[in-house]
Specification:
274 residues, alpha/beta, Cobalt-precorrin-4 Transmethylase, domain 1, Methyltransferase, Cobalt-precorrin-4 Transmethylase, Domain 2, 2 domains, five-stranded parallel sheet, five-stranded mixed sheet, 10 helices, 19% strand
């Protein structure tokens, strides 16, 4: 750590699911003031190139399925503390919202231990952004009473009793970070007798120019889309409401398979010390 002169503060904000115009006005205002911006991979380059003040230090601290140059959480924590203790205003910019499938608590613990003041600014989470841009009302009347946000990236993450309850619920199910285990996810729901009127919508790179939605009845998925490789980030919506996408789709599917969010090439610590 550098010598402590005076303490700055940290702004933890959500950048939304991709479309840079979904950034909140409050997050934009702080971006234009921040001395240091530490951004996730799933933050649009437009935001980082056009909305950040010219002399700010921008560090890319993304994660990518725990592969390659992904940044460990403890390094992100260290950077937040280090720059704040230099008296700087630090913006921690996360894709989507800051508190849904995000390591918000780890960062808050690190800041609290060092008595660093912080502010939390919510953002549009991937579920609401992807659903809106796909034309899927998550709790449409007569189609769902509630919506659940889940993730299934480990085979042992959910117990059989819970799978049975998920298969039989009338709630809309939204799965984050689950494209690699999608075949198994669907198999589990079918084994537990998910209803025949349930559809699945797999939304690639939602709210970006590369958005593509794959939609079918969940009982037909293995035949139509089984073992597919989807472009990250991918969000999965399962339930009766997913069928409405075919009726209310308002953005044409893109066939561009390029990444909107660039894969990680260098660890953030390397960039900070370059």
């Amino acid at each position: 750590m550098n010598n402590i002169q005076h303490t700055g503060r940290v702004i933890i904000a959500g950048a939304g699911p991709g479309d840079p115009e979904l950034l909140t006005l409050k997050a934009l205002r702080y971006l234009q003031q921040a001395d240091v911006v530490i951004a996730d991979r799933l933050v649009s380059d437009v935001i980082l190139c056009e909305y950040v003040k010219k002399d700010a230090l921008v560090l890319h601290a993304g994660k990518q399925s725990r592969k390659g140059a992904s940044t460990p959480q403890f390094i992100i924590n260290e950077l937040l503390v280090e720059y704040a203790l230099q008296g700087k205003m630090v913006m921690r910019l996360k894709g989507g919202d800051v508190s849904i499938f995000s390591n918000l608590m780890d960062e808050l613990n690190a800041l609290s231990r060092h008595h660093i003041p912080y502010e939390i600014i919510p953002g549009i989470t991937a579920a609401s952004g992807a659903a809106a841009y796909a034309g899927i009302p998550l709790t449409a009347r007569d189609h769902a009473n509630a919506v659940r946000f889940l993730t299934y990236y480990k085979a042992d993450l959910l117990q059989d009793d819970y799978w049975k309850e998920l298969a039989q619920t009338g709630d809309t199910l939204v799965f984050y970070m689950s494209s690699d285990t999608l075949d198994e996810l669907i198999s589990k729901l079918l084994q537990h007798k998910i209803a025949g009127d349930r559809h699945i919508a797999v939304i690639e790179q939602a709210t970006t120019p590369m958005q593509h939605v794959y939609n079918c009845n969940i009982h037909e998925y293995a035949k139509k889309r089984g073992s597919s490789n989807f472009v990250s980030p991918t969000l999965i919506i399962i339930g009766k409401v997913a069928a409405l996408q075919q009726q209310f789709q308002w953005i044409p599917n893109s066939n561009n398979r390029e990444y909107y969010f660039k894969p990680i090439e260098r660890n953030v610590k390397e960039i900070a010390r370059a």
